[in-house]
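**Protein fold record**
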Amino acid sequence: MTGLTGRAGRAGPDDTGETDAERRRRRARFLRDLAEARELRDRVQPRRVKVARLRHAMRMRTFRW
């Protein structure tokens, strides 16, 4: 499985020929796709979103500063 190895097993930019700019572009594309997938899930499962929002609110109310 390429791309899923840990930091110790990862090849450096010199080994793959990938520049920092390419890596940042690839990461930005991945994060955009991830956000899009989350939005889609939220649209098709509104109950789950509501429950998660209520749970988060409860955690915030019961959290001791």
